[in-house]
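Section 5.1 Outputs to date
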Amino acid sequence: MNSIRELAEAMLRYLGSAGLSPAELAQQTRIPADRLDTCNPDLSPSQMAQLWPLIQSSMACQPRFTMLVRALIDRQLANGRARVADIADQLNMSRQTLYKRLKEENQTFAALLDQARREQALVFLRDRRRTLTEVAHQLGFSELSAFSRAFKRWMGQSPAHFRDSHRT
């Protein structure tokens, strides 16, 4: 029983890091949202099987240019801010060309930045030594309130609630 719950938790954490909120998961799988709590999921094996195609599709290989831009975003976020102009300069192209190349791969800079911020937020929030304001600034948000709104959009809960519910 414990290993099934751990597997469900891992599946839901992965899907959350891939950008699917509990509300979106509930809608796509028709699993009640209250069963999709990453801290205490209550899923049957058949419900877990419904999550598997979503995991597989999120693991599909991304096109090469998208992966390159995402790596540059990650590197810049480590320094506190990822700017499209800086990344375009690193690639020796204009912002418009960068946007065009991403569009050819059905991607946008904003979506890649959002995904990188979401993934890093989940990592940073597990470090209780960092304040929420520090996390917000490290991710390039101008204010804690902007980070809180983005996090609630990503995860369906506030960063403080997420941190409290994921005590290690």
